[in-house]
Amino acid sequence: MAIAAAKSCDINVQAAEIPVSSPTDGQWEYTIMGRKKWSVSVGQLVTSIVVPFSMVGTAVTLSMEVDGNVGRPFNGFVDNPTLESGSTTSPYIVWDKTRKKFIGQYINRQGDRYYYEHWPTELLYTNLTNYQHFCIYDEFDEDHPYGSVYTYYNGDLHAEKLTGQANVVEWRATGSVGNLCQGSFRFNGNGALTPASLPATT
After folding, report:
1. What is the pTM of this model?
2. Confidence label for 90 from pLDDT (cuts 50, 70 and 90)
3. Percent helix, strand and coil across the chain, each rounded to 5?
4. C-alpha dihedral over 150, 152, 154, 159, to 10 degrees?
């Protein structure tokens, strides 16, 4: 779900510690890890009081992701296209989900797409290290050219996005004369908070 006029987000993931005894060191407490839980708090500018009021006590699906100009830009995803021989000089950079690598995409004036392993800046996209960041770049969106962020880890790209089911347990609004009205939601997770998969290719 999207929170209108959201200004801040706090994600809290916790794991319980279960005390256990040691057969040889009884005066010290040891622990094993137990179950996990999560919650989310979102601050917002209040633009409505009826809609958020009615959400309290309901269940929703939450998605949290990193957006913005973080890391090197690329232009989307493909899945195992045929590679041409040689190289291209001015490609779009795309991630091949089957080969698990970046490749160059050239689109001619007729809209035909050709894919290459080699292009002038390929070293910036082929010498990859763990935790390197890349972001979707859309040159046709002047207002929001940068979109979702992805992290390279253990040979694949991973979306910087978490999703899960949550209960809306609290909504609070605070207002004063001459100031904008501030609001906040609190969500308690109901089940697992899971990483999102890569988007489907077209």
Report:
1. 0.77
2. confident
3. 5, 50, 45
4. 0
